[in-house]
Amino acid sequence: MERSPKHLAPVPDGPRAHPGCRKGSRQARSSRQATHRKVGRNLPRLRGRTLQTDWFNDGRGGPPAVETFHLEEVRPLLERHYGAGTRRAAAGESQGGFGALSYSARHPGMFRAAASYSGFVHPSMHPHAIRAAMTYLGLDWQAVWGDPVAQRANWHAHDPHYLADRLRTTPVYLSSGDGTLGALDPPGTEPDPEIPGLEDPADPFPKDVVSPTETIMARESKALATRLTSLGTPVTTHFYAGTHSPSYWVREFRRSLPMLLRALGA
Fold first, then answer.
1. How far apart, in whole angstroms, are the C-alpha atoms of residue 137 and residue 95?
2. To the nearest 5 percent, what fractions of the chain are helix, strand and coil?
3. Distance between CA atoms of 108 and 264, rounded to whole angstroms?
4. How do 114-117 and 40-41 pair as beta strands?
5. For the chain, which terminal residue's Cβ has fewer other Cβ atoms within 10 angstroms, N or C?
6. Each residue's pLDDT tens digit in the chain (266 positions)?
7. pLDDT tens digits, residue range 183-240?
8. Do the beta carbons of residue 163 and residue 102 sit within 8 Å?
9. Angle, alpha carbons 33-16-47 (nearest 5°)
């Protein structure tokens, strides 16, 4: 791949951080063959169970500091030594979708476009889901941003929905399934593993949902899309029947690629 002053930066999803993901994202990664020869693809990989943010850790900060690692260490390294340039776009699936939108909003102008495929792009909407998923994984859920009430300002400072005004001129692509079986789910697809506390008793999942994680992603993506539209942001959406599965993320990446390349001037 030729060196170029433009690059596409997929944000890793960290598959082990989302027990609702029925498979890892190797399939999605292997399919991301950008068709334009002057566009570089950079996918920093994370080990362990983490999120695309600098963790709060009871106000102490410190590791894991994923946002700082990606933007202050990986990005300059790519630009100095691997031919990456200053025209950038960010895209990611699952929690990588959160990273793509949160990074773009928290650092206006760093990315010319952003895309989320089944991302939890409005975490303040479902703090109980963050609690349930991280507890399921044996992690301290309040170590990420603190308590959602006492540290509400910190939650909002990372939530794309509350940072939407910073994305007014950034083209955004949002997609998600509804958690029911869809066209790309093979026969015999099993329901997601049960995660205690993931369902809100006040807003239960429809009976035909087999992927509750994806249902939550759809609700958050639609809420963000509504907010962005109200601000005049150039937003493209695709909502469909389907589960939290790499097969859909491959398709959605391909659908969003023309928008990402246009933003890069490629």
1. 15
2. 40, 15, 50
3. 15
4. unpaired
5. N
6. 233 445 666 665 543 334 544 444 444 444 444 444 456 666 565 554 568 999 999 999 999 999 999 999 999 999 999 888 889 999 999 999 999 999 999 999 999 999 999 999 999 999 999 999 999 999 999 999 999 999 999 999 999 999 999 999 999 999 999 999 999 999 999 999 999 999 999 999 999 999 999 999 999 999 999 999 999 999 999 999 999 999 999 999 999 999 999 999 98
7. 999 999 999 999 999 999 999 999 999 999 999 999 999 999 999 999 999 999 999 9
8. yes
9. 75
Average pLDDT, the chain: 88
Task: Using the structure block, give the residue that is written with the tokens 């109980």.
Answer: 128
**Residues 6+ away with beta carbon under 8 Å from 30:** none
Closest CA to 22 of 238, 142, 188, 254: 188
Phi then psi dihedrals of residue 9, to 5 deg: -115, 90
The full 3-state SS of 69-113, as one line of letters, equals HHHHHHHHHHHHHCCCCCEEEEEEECHHHHHHHHHHHHCCCCCCC
The phi-psi region of residue 61 (left if phi > 0; otherwise alpha if psi is between -120 and 50; otherwise beta) is left
Rounded-to-integer distance, Cα 246 and Cα 256, Å: 15
- Asked if 220 contacts 180 with a C-beta cutoff of 8 angstroms, the reply is no
Phi, psi of 196 (to 5 degrees): -55, 130
Residue 11 pairs with which residues in a beta bridge? 92
Tokens of 1: 């791949």
Helix (H) or strand (E) holding 225: helix 212-230
